[in-house]
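Look over this record as teaching material.
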Amino acid sequence: MSFRTVVASSGKSLSASEKRVIAILLGEPEPSSLRAAPVAARAQTHESTVVRLAQKLGYSGFPDLRADLERDNPEPVTASALMRSDTGHELAVFARDEARALERLSSFIPQEQLVDVATSIHRARVVYLFSKADERPALDMLARRLRRLGLVVVELGLGGKDLAERFVSFTEDSILIAFALREAPSQLPALVREAERRGGTSILISDAPGYHFRPAPTHLLVAQRGDDSEYNTLIIPIAIAYALQLAIFHLDPDRYGAVRDDINDVSRLVGGTDEIPLR
């Protein structure tokens, strides 16, 4: 996850020396070479202050912090490095890797956890969805799956007044579902915090196992995507969208079956016989 996002979303109060350390970290062009002791010397503080700051921000130690900082300053990569140069571009290899990611999905998200999240969505009056632009296909798929259940869905904009105008109706009966793949959107910490302040629920779908998001959402669904660290598809997030739809449906088959029939009836009414959905 981005170190800048972690700092921006942290609700911890910082001392003057800790603020100097953060300023040095954010201004470092080559974070891979950083060590706690030299950073402390530059900030005119003790090495223990640097280590404690990392832990205060949720990291296990300074090396863990440095890894996030490196994500803010990635090394230049060639196009080939982004396109499965190591894992292989052949269809059979690509399909095998994605199949492996699907097979281990249930080990990351147990059925009990999926049902728990589905129950929260089932009880919500309105579902609000949020993601970065490059995650939009997964968000659009989830929105469609939820609308097929008759749920009221609001897709939030990417920022500014458009996002605020759509989110302002969020209440204690609402639920926020957000995607944070590879990195969390910069607006996400504020949205999660505001959803909590308004008494609602938040769900975060991520691909970063072991990471502690701040502020913590009500529910966290985390599943690793393909094995290639640079080339990840949306197959796993989209599979999660389908799994959530199925889990919600089976909480109340009569209710959601009636909605499905109603959708079919309205489709016939407005679309004609050629537009009758097959499912």
